[in-house]
Amino acid sequence: MCKFIPKSFHWVDSIYMQKIVILSGAGISAESGLKTFRDQNGLWNNYRIEEVASPEAWSKNPQLVLDFYNQRRKQLFEVKPNAAHYSLAKLEEKYDVVVITQNVDDLHERAGSKNVLHLHGELKKVRSTIDENLVYELDGWELKLGDKCAKGSQLRPHIVWFGEAVPNIMKATKLAEMADVFMVIGTSLMVYPAAALINYVPDDSLKYMIDPNASDNMHLKNMTVYRNKAVEGVTHIVDQLLQN
Question: Do 109 and 210 belong to one domain?
């Protein structure tokens, strides 16, 4: 059973609050026990990730692709948001906060974040293969061959696959340009185009990067790097921001 989701999104902005823009990656979800996209050296059941997450993979073996995402979706129902997710949601008490996430899980939303922009799609949603505007909330964790949209076409995961455009990247770029504070969490900025967002943040804005594998080449103005895992780094920074 699927529930149709109209293609609309309303942003809540306030001229009275500083805007905090957060870019989150796999590291924050990993601390909830969610396996990262490239666990086991980029393999899944002896298949390369590109072989289960690309338009070519879908055309060649849709059942294999569905199995991959069904297993990931099932795991998502078994995990919960962690302290980093909850801390970021708490920032909304004082700031205008937007989360831009590379993650396809819903842990930010479940922790209470109200404005979340998904760059790479959403695991709990599916969409039509002939009309990308027909997006549905999946009831449960399993999508099957034969599950069809209102127009009669097979449903596919609502995921941006390798080789596909990232529809929300321009919206994310505009948000980065508006940031008074920009936080990068759980990503070492190696995946493009998301990695380029930090280059659009104003020079005089505060910037924080929280990732154990953060590069030594981060020489942006007003950048503070924390080589910590998400929970430790985020809770520390959020406490500081809420005390200001």
Answer: yes
Rounded Cα distance between 239 and 150, Å, is 47
pLDDT tens, residue by residue, 78-106: 999 999 999 999 999 999 999 999 999 99
Whole-prediction pTM value? 0.90
> Domain boundary at 159, 181, 206, which?
159
Pair 141, 86 in one domain = no
CA–CA separation, 86 vs 125, rounded Å? Answer: 23
120 catalytic? Reply is yes
Task: Indicate whether 214 and 108 sit together in one domain.
Answer: yes
Q: Which residues pair with 118 in a beta bridge?
A: 101
Catalytic residue among 85, 120, 158, 219: 120
Task: Find the radius of gyration of the CA atoms of the chain.
Answer: 18
Edge to edge, the sheet with strand 96-101 lists: 116-118, 96-101, 19-24, 181-185, 206-210, 223-226
